[in-house]
């Protein structure tokens, strides 16, 4: 799949709920995981591949997560960290996020799934759910002077960049 980049309008619009988890939805999730790994990234939302459905994939640990119709139902604490995005490939910024979250949705088979995450997993879940609501990470940056070009950071060897 091709990753849609800003300023494509789909990135700024709200995705539609999945009414039923079908073989087509499972194939979408599988293709999204493959696209995310090829990019490489640690998360991807369906609008980022041109699909207006509430499907996200994340892989920051032992196994990939597929979450359909996800919602963040609880959040605590705060972390501020460098965040990038596959749809804004040359930008990163300091983004405040909750340190711990609970996300609920459906797994790839349509079964209810509840996840707790902290650190990078919490950040990735929040980032991807934001995509489903038409919100890009640059809208979450507390201070616009804390947005940089990836090429500048790599040249200065200041930070490692993880694209969520």
Please characterize this protein's 3D structure.
The protein is an alpha+beta fold and 164 residues long. The protein has one domain: Peptide deformylase (Peptide Deformylase), CATH 3.90.45.10. The protein has helices spanning 23-38, 120-132, 150-156, and strands at 43-45, 55-58, 65-76, 79-85, 88-97, 100-106, 112-118, 147-149. Strands 1-2-3-6-7 form a 5-stranded antiparallel sheet. It is globular and about 45 Å long. The model has no long low-confidence stretch (mean pLDDT 94).
A few lines on this structure:
By secondary structure, the protein is of the alpha+beta class. The chain has helices at residues 23-38, 120-132, 150-156; strands at residues 43-45, 55-58, 65-76, 79-85, 88-97, 100-106, 112-118, 147-149.
């Amino acid at each position: 799949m091709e990753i849609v980049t800003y300023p494509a309008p789909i990135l700024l619009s709200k995705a539609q709920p999945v009414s039923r988890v079908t073989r087509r939805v499972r194939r979408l999730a599988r293709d999204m995981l493959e696209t995310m790994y090829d990019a490489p990234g640690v998360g991807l939302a369906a609008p980022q591949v041109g699909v207006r459905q509430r499907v996200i994939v994340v892989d920051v640990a032992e196994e990939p997560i597929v979450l359909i119709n996800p919602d963040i139902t609880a959040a605590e604490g705060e972390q501020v960290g460098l965040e990038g995005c596959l749809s804004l490939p040359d930008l990163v910024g300091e983004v405040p996020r909750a340190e711990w979250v609970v996300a609920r949705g459906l797994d790839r088979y349509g079964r209810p799934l509840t996840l707790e995450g902290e650190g990078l997993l919490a950040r990735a879940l929040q980032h991807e759910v934001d995509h489903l609501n038409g919100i890009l990470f640059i809208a979450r940056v507390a201070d616009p002077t804390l947005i940089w070009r990836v090429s500048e950071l790599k040249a200065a060897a200041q930070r490692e960049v993880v694209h969520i």
